Amino acid sequence: MSDIALEVHNLCVDYKSFRSTSIQNNLFKKKEKTDLVHAVSDVSFCVARGEIVGIVGKNGSGKSTMLKAIGGIFKPDKGTIDRRGNTVSLLSIGVGFEMNLSGRENVLLSGMLLGFKERFIREKLEEIIQFSELGEFIDYPVRTYSSGMYSKLAFAITSSLDTDILLVDEVLSVGDEHFRQKSSARMKELISDEQRTVLIVSHDMHTLGELCNRIIWMHDGRCIADGKTETVIEQYRRFMTTGEIERIV
């Protein structure tokens, strides 16, 4: 690739899973046993500037964990993530908001965490609020929001504040039908910029087929396939039907 925007090399992300313990063990404060879960195992790939990459896989395959590592939420246990100096934003339910602050305050906070100046964010504020369709709820604490309201605000912020790399995790299918259509149209507008790089985690094969020119298939923390959209989606659909994996890397 002549102009690489993102390079992931031998990425590994682990976490500890506590086993259930008996009441007797809890009473005597015996040390809990833990299992080490390899959420992402030795994954490597490069993404060119302007490329739109979909990431598929069944629940628990490591898709969201990998995206959070790329976004700087999780620290890799092994391997490297080279963003090549690009700014990165992560659009994901449950990530990035202070729950006791209002939606309006979270717009300002999120923008500054992404590296934008307060003056610029305030200039974009009304545009973001209008797109979110939250109305008077923009001044309510985010902890009072439904998942749909949360996703609307998250999408409005991330899609209005331009970053070089946009990471989208399962939010395109959240919200009412009207907002899904509007967010899909905004996403198409965003990716029409040939300089913006996008990684999308989704179970919506139709949307990925429309937006992406490449698909990465994750399974049990590993990359099973990385190739053309139509080819990988077809292989993944066959796997979901038969349970058999055909390696096509």
Describe the structure.
The mean pLDDT is 86. The strands form 2 sheets. The chain has a 6-stranded mixed β-sheet with strand order 5-6-7-3-8-9, with helices on both faces. It has a 3-stranded antiparallel β-sheet with strand order 2-1-4. It contains 8 helices and 9 strands. The protein is of the alpha/beta class. The chain is 36% helix and 27% strand. The protein is globular, with a radius of gyration of 19 Å. β8 (214-219) and β9 form a beta hairpin. α3 (103-113) packs across α4 and α4 packs across α5.
Topology:
Elements: E1 4-18, H1 23-27, E2 34-48, E3 52-56, H2 63-70, E4 78-82, E5 88-92, H3 103-113, H4 118-132, H5 147-160, E6 165-169, H6 177-191, E7 197-201, H7 205-211, E8 214-219, E9 222-227, H8 229-242
Parallel strand pairs: 3-7, 3-8, 5-6, 6-7
Antiparallel strand pairs: 1-2, 1-4, 8-9
- Low-confidence stretches are none
| Biggest sheet record | 6 strands, mixed
Structural class: alpha/beta
Beta strand % = 25-35%
**Rg of Cα set:** 19 Å
Mean pLDDT: 86
Count the helices. How many?
8
Beta strands, count? 9
Which strand order spans the largest sheet, edge to edge or round the barrel? 5-6-7-3-8-9
Shape: globular
C-alpha termini separation:
17 Å
N-to-C series of helices and strands: EHEEHEEHHHEHEHEEH
State the helicity in percent bands: 25-40%
